[in-house]
Structure formats: structure tokens, C-alpha cells
Amino acid sequence: MSTITAEKQTAPKAPAARDGGEWRRTPSWLYAVLFVGLFLVVVPFVWMLLSSIKPEAEVRAVPPTWWPETITLDNYATLFTKLDFPTYFLNSAIVALAVTAGNMVFCSMLGYALAKLDFPGKKALFAIVLGTLMIPGVVTFVPLFVLTTNIGLSNTLLGMILPFLAGPFGVFLMRQFIQTLPDELIQAARIDGAGELRIFFSVILPLCGPALATLGILTFLTSWNNFLWPLVVAQTEDKYTLPVALALYSVGQNATQYGLLLAGSVVVVLPVLAIFLVLQRHIMQGIAMTGIK
Amino acid sequence: MDPTRRQQAVAAWALALPFVLLFAVFSLGPVLASLGMSFTDMRRTDIRDPLAVNPVGLDNYVQLVQDPLFRKVTLNTLLYLLLGVPATMAVALLVAIGINRVERFRGFFRVGYYLPVVTSIVAVSVVWKFLYRDNGGLFNTLLGWVGIDGPGWLDSTTLALPSLVLMAVWRNFGTLMVIFLAGLQTIPQEVNEAAEVDGASGWARFRHITLPMLRPTLLFGAVITGLGYLQFFEEAFVMTKGGPLDSTRSATYFTFDQFGFGNYGYAAAASYLLFLAVVLLTWAQFRWLGERDDATVKGAKK
Q1: Does residue A169 form part of some domain?
Q2: Are residues A204 and A263 in the same domain?
Q3: Is B168 part of the contact surface with chain A (CB cutoff 8 Å)?
Q4: Whose CB among A185, A248, A259, B79 lies 3.0–4.6 Å from A59's, allowing a Cys bridge?
Q5: Range(s) of the domain holding residue A91
Q6: How close is the nearest chain B Cα to the Cα of A175, in Å?
Q7: With contact defined as beta carbons under 8 Å apart, do B41 and B53 qualify?
């Protein structure tokens, strides 16, 4: 999106740039600097991956080896057979998918109402939802724990999901997007006799693809990485999500098994890196859509 | 109300209802309950009967202000914010300006530098704890090559917190980089060209064109980064357990600990003080960065 705007601005000026505009010519050292910077940014990931396939003794070697002398998948085997990483992985996936689906449905419904419909209480509702955007999660977790305990949801996946099912960020994003859709669409549908709910489901929603994709991906990533609330809710190992399991192992009895912990980090990080690399366009759009107005 | 408007209002509330219900029960309710709880002596033993607790007025807050550990975690949190926000913004701005000036690999760089942002803080903390190791860690091995005997980064009361900040900068600058990049692209090239014709140096153009025109974007970046850093917790939980000697224990960590001890009223009060800090920070940053804004930006736009 932003690349397109940039091209629009530079394209007609291209000849002038060749003539002289000294500041716009790209010096080649800049490429070098940017590549070195990028290398520094990805080094921790490379180090994590390479260490995770070394035997424990080599992981601890001083000085460390860069490329593994012996390649082994033992660490991963331990995670998935001796430890219960398949369960943690499944828990993380269930929670993240449910939270994502909920936000896509509920936030687009409210986002449409706030963007295009007139109703008493609209301004107050929007103000309240926006106001909670900056409330830290730490403010709500104690009463939430009391609540989930009393309705029988402590130590359940549902207890992890429900509090995150309807977030203010999604409402804000969907409202911003739906506002850009022309009012004529809705008026035409009304003239054709479509009911208000039908207009939302069959006229508006099909046009929300890009915004829904952005919301879906961002919500999934946030939920997958979420830590504090799952840590509070999960009381037995079979309810751990990946970050909870990894964090508790890393400070518990497995604290010194570096190879194992690094392999665990790979299991947490790799799926989101893959999702991001495939779908990064939508994420960049989302940041531009909500961040820059 | 005429029938069509009435219909619209009914439909709007029908669409809003599921969100509003979930939101009221799981967000707004707890925010208010937390405030109420902070004025009581609620403990874990009251969990089944939360309304039967005793009001204690401002006792929890008074106790917090006098609690040496709470003072310490407040200081740690502020230090984290004061070190982290400028560093993150500076790195993000440098990278954004760099990427904005190249013609090729733009998308590639943008995606690459953004990678750490999407990863779990818990997972990257495990990795960085390994990189920071005293013997055989990546940092100290590299320092060893140039003859420096690196310290135990996470074992030192003075170095542990800055070490966490360094990781946070690495983890978070990508978000701001993307936002700044979009901001840079809204600056018309004519302005820079005109300044260049008038003989303005690169630094002068940065100082008098880029910075003022980017001010709203910088403000937004400072606020969202600050909000995140005020709540830091996971990196300390994994890398240092709040130590050594509580030097990396944060306000969120303190609240989590008090919750763990069963002191629910006390924990709620601590979380509300953090909330207050969040509100103050947002307000202050808008005042501070927003003020001079209008005149300069309007002037530059003409």
C-alpha cells in the first residue's frame, strides 16, 4: 500500500533524479548498511534454529560452535514424545483460532453499526470501546480470575478464550474500514427492500475481505503469543499453551536444558514466522490503516 | 422516531449486542471491579464470596506508596520506559529513513526488519537468555574476539535491566519502523527539493523538514511504545525472574506476585496505579509533542 504511494510520488520525477537531485540517489553503502542491520536482526533466530539441532553437549560448548558439528533432532523428539508439546500446541491453536473467529464476527458487526447506522447511544458506545484500547491487561486479570473461578471456567480453554473474544482493536479497525465504503450501496439495498441485517450480511460483509484478513491475522498472532492470562488460568499441565509451557519449563526444572528450550522456542516462533511471511501484506496494511490516519 | 430510523436503531443494537455483552462482562466489568476491589481487603480466601469483603478505604494505596518493593518496581518500570522508548524510536527512525532512501529491496527490508515483532516474547526471551550467557553466549564470545571479557549480563543488578531493554528494542522497533516509513512517504518531495536548492544540508533537512512533518507520527509511536513498555513482564519472568535482587521486577510483575500470594485487593490497587501511569503518560506525551506541532507543520506544508 505505502509502496504504491511512494511510486506515485517518485515516478514522474525520475528524469530529474538522474539529472542531479543528489539527495535522492541511493548510495551503495546504504544497501550494505541495511543488509548488515538485517543480518544482526535475524541472527538470534538463526542461532536459535542451529542450536536446537545440536546435541546438548555441543549447545553448551565454550567456545560455541556456529554450524552444528552433529545434527540431531533429539530435542524435538523429546518435546513431542517425552514432554507434552502436542497438547500445548493444540491448546494454543484452539485458543488462537477461537479468539480470531470471535473477533472477526463480533467486531465487524459492531464496526458496521458504528460506521454506518444511526442509533441512540452510538457516540457513548464508541467512546467507551475506544477508551478501553489502552487499558493494560494487568488491570483486569484479578477480577477476571475471580469471575472465571466462580462460573466454573478456571483451568479451561474456554476460560482463556472468552475474555478475548471481543476486543476494542477489532472494532476500531473494522469501523475505519467500513467507513470508506460508499453509503450509496446501503441506500440502494434499502430501496430494493433489503432488511438492515441482511444489508450487513450480504452487502457489507462480502466487501470487508481485506480488513477481515488483516484483523484475523493480527488477532491470531496476538493470541498465539499471549502469556499473562493463559498463565493465570492454566493450573494443570494439560491446559498449558505453548508460551506458558515454555516459560514455566525455562524457569523450572528444565532451566538448564538449553537445547530443549531452544527447540521449544522454535516450535512457538516458527508457525507465526511462516504465517507472517506468507501473509505479511495484510499486516502492513493493518498497521497503516489503524496507525496512520 | 420514524419507522425506518427505528428499524435502523433496532438493527444496530442487534448487531452490537453480542460484542457489548462480552465486552461488559469480560472487559468493562472487570475494570470497574478491579477499582472496587482495590478499596477492600480481599484475599484468595474470599474468592467464592467476593462481595463479603471489608472496605478499607485507601489503605492499600497508602501501603503501596510506603512499600519499598513497590517503589523499587515503579523505578524499574520508569527506567525501562525512559531507556526503551527513545532507543526504540531512534533505531526505528534510522532504519525507516534508510529504507525510504533505497530504490530496491524496499519490501524485502521492511519484512525482514519486522520479523521479531510477530514472535512470542516468551520464546525470544528464552533465546536471548541463551545469547546473554556468561560463558559461551553469543555476546561474550563476540566480545572475546576483540579481547574483552564480557560480564554476566543478566547476573548484574546494573546490567540486567538494560539487557532486557536491548532485547525489547530488537523485538519492537519493527512496528515503529513501518509506521515511520508510511509517515515519511507522506512528506512531499518538493519540500526537500526546494530546501536543497536553497542549500540546506542533509542534517538541516532532517532537523527542519523530516522531524517537524513527522511529529504526529512520532507522537503516536512514542505513545504506543510507552504503553507497551510500562507493562513489561514476560521478558523479566523468563530471563531473570525479576532478579537479581529485584532489579528487573516490574509493576506488572509485582501485581502478578501479589496475586500469587493471594493479596487480591493489594494487587488490584497496584494495577490501578499502573493504569494511572498509563493515562498520565498518554496525556503528557500528547501535550508535550502535540503543542509545538500546529505552527511548524502548517508552516512547512505551505
Answers
A1: yes
A2: yes
A3: no
A4: A259
A5: 78-291
A6: 12
A7: yes
Q: Is the dihedral angle over the CA atoms B97, B102, B103, B109 positive or is it negative?
A: negative
CA distance B107 to A42: 16
Task: Please give the pLDDT value at position A267.
Answer: 94
CB-nearest to B264 from A22, A142, A163 is: A142
Residue A159 grid coordinates:
476460560
Residue with cell 532489579: B247
pLDDT of B162 strictly over 60: yes
Asked if residue A117 lies in contact with residue A244, where contact means CB atoms within 8 angstroms, the answer is no
B47:A146 CB<8 A: yes
Residue A125 placed within a domain: yes
Q: How far apart (Å, rounded) are the C-alpha atoms in residues A204 and A197?
A: 10
**Model confidence at B1, in pLDDT bands (50, 70, 90)?**
low
- Count CB pairs under 8 A between chains A and B: 320
B147 Cα to chain A: minimum distance (Å): 14
Mutation target vs A (from B119, B166, B172, B224; most A CBs, 10 A cutoff):
B119
How far is Cα A110 from Cα B19, in angstroms, rounded to an integer? Answer: 7
φ/ψ of B55, rounded to 5, equals -70, 140
If asked whether residues A24 and A87 sit together in one domain, one would say no
Report residue B297's pLDDT band, with 50, 70 and 90 as the boundaries. Answer: very low
Instruction: Please give the residue of chain A at the shortest CA–CA distance from B99.
Output: A34
Handedness of CA B137, B142, B147, B149 (dihedral sign): negative
Of A131-135, A240-244, B113-117, B239-243, give the lowest mean pLDDT range: A131-135
Distance CA A36, CA B78 (A): 32
Put simply, the chain B residues between 57 and 116 with a CB less than 8 A from any chain A CB are 95, 98-107, 109-116
Judge if A236 and A280 occupy the same domain.
yes
What is the spatial distance between Cα A283 and Cα A218, in angstroms, rounded to a whole number? 7
The Cα of A152 is separated from the nearest Cα of chain B by a number of Å equal to: 11
pLDDT at res. B291: 57
Does A116 lie in the same domain as A174?
A: yes
d(CA A216, CA B237): 29
Its ipTM equals 0.87
Residue of A nearest to B231 (CA): A136
Residue A170: all three cell numbers together: 477489532
Beta bridge partners of B55: B40
The total of structural domains in chain A comes to: 2
Judged against a pLDDT cut of 70, whether residue B248 lies above it is answered with yes
A48 belongs to a structural domain: yes
CA dist., res. B89 & res. B94, Å (int): 8
- Residue in this structure with the C-alpha cell 493493518, named with its chain if needed: A286
pLDDT band at A290 (very low <50, low <70, confident <90, very high): low
Q: Is B168 exposed, middle or buried (0-12, 13-18, 19+ CB in 10 A)?
A: buried
Chain A residue closest to B282 (CA)? Answer: A134
**Which domains does chain B show, CATH number per domain?**
61-301 (1.10.3720.10)
Reduce the DSSP state of residue A134 to 3 states and report it.
Answer: helix
Confirm whether A69 is domain-assigned: no
Contact A21 B196 (CB under 8 A): yes
Rounded Cα–Cα distance for residues B224 and B226 (Å): 5
Out of A9, A138, A147, name the one closest to residue B252 (CB).
A138
| pLDDT tens by residue, B211-226 | 888 888 888 888 889 9
